[in-house]
Design a protein that fits this description.
- With 287 residues, this protein is mainly alpha-helical.
- The protein folds into two domains: 76 residues, Helix Hairpins (Orthogonal Bundle), CATH 1.10.287.70; 209 residues, Four Helix Bundle (Hemerythrin (Met), subunit A) (Up-down Bundle).
- The radius of gyration is 22 Å and the shape is elongated.
- 71% of the residues lie in helices and 0% in strands.
- It starts with 19 loop residues before the first helix and ends with a helix.
- The chain has seven helices and no strands.
Length: 287
């Protein structure tokens, strides 16, 4: 994407109808129902979820390939470049609102609902209830669990992800200056840091389930914790896939200093993921 090359396009390029949005919708249906089945422990849910992810990967591979071909074929002019930038901006805004809903749920439960229950004359219903966070629920129905402390695992992950934002910026500057070797090296470091983050988070989840008794069904604390950190981890995986595509595109000779919005879009997304994690680290692990 970006300024056209190999012959400037005279008009705004309108692609032919594609099947990829429909494929994406089918992937979302399988993924949503599969995830719901897994959470509710319905038999076969894991297979349905796996099918959804495989279809999603198929869609991403096919759609990426078509857009890359159009871009490298010189079909995009400055107008198309601007529309891509607006599209990516609105997409990231929708992601901001997505995470804001989960942060809002956590805020409401912790700052409004819990103190209100503490002020309410609940002794006849829940004699042992205390309005402390994390809560075990009225009457302790959730069962004992321990929260994950900010040190050391979440702090290590914060260092990994923040460092990846720095290495990605260096890679971008390498692309801007036409230094492909520099861009590839620093982008590879970004990918290593990003996938390391995912690995450390997987270790954290195993530790939470097996040693801390902290699960998705551990009341409002467990559900908000895993929804926030889990969806964020999913976004890290998607961002890492996007950056992996950018890595191989640079290897193939794609992009120029004035023609690389695909890389910029992936970088925007990655920096957004960085910012969300910092908010998570402070609100979920420290406060």
């Amino acid at each position: 994407m970006g300024s056209t090359h190999g012959g400037a396009a005279a008009h705004y390029y309108v692609p032919a109808p594609a099947r990829w949005p429909m494929v994406g919708m089918i992937a979302m249906i399988f993924t949503t129902f599969g995830a719901a089945m897994v959470v509710n422990r319905v038999s076969g849910g894991g297979y349905v979820l796996l099918i959804g992810f495989l279809i999603l990967l198929y869609m991403m591979r096919g759609w990426f390939a078509e857009v890359i071909g159009e871009s490298e074929g010189g079909r995009y002019n400055r107008q198309v470049d601007v529309s891509f930038r607006w599209g990516m901006s609105w997409f990231i805004f929708s992601e901001v609102m997505f995470f804001a809903s989960f942060f809002g749920a956590l805020f409401y439960a912790r700052v409004i609902t819990l103190p209100s229950l503490g002020d309410f004359d609940h002794k006849l219903l829940w004699p042992d209830f205390t309005p402390t966070w994390p809560t075990l629920g009225p009457g302790g129905i959730v069962g004992e669990f321990s929260k994950i402390h900010a040190w050391p695992v979440p702090t290590i992950n914060t260092i990994l992800l923040v460092s990846s934002g720095f290495t990605l910026t260096v890679a971008h500057h390498g692309l801007l200056s036409g230094e492909r070797g520099k861009a590839l090296l620093w982008l590879l470091l970004t990918l290593l840091l990003g996938f390391s983050f995912v690995g450390v988070q997987a270790f954290e989840y195993i530790h939470a389930y097996t040693e801390l008794n902290l699960r998705l069904d551990s009341g409002i604390f467990g559900s908000t914790f895993f929804m926030l950190t889990g969806f964020h981890g999913f976004h890290v995986i998607i961002g890492a896939i996007m950056l992996t595509v950018m890595f191989f595109r640079i290897l193939r000779g794609h992009f120029r200093p004035d023609h690389h919005f695909a890389f910029e879009a992936a970088a925007w997304y990655w920096h957004f993921v960085d910012v969300v994690w910092i908010g998570l680290y402070i609100v979920v692990y420290w406060l």
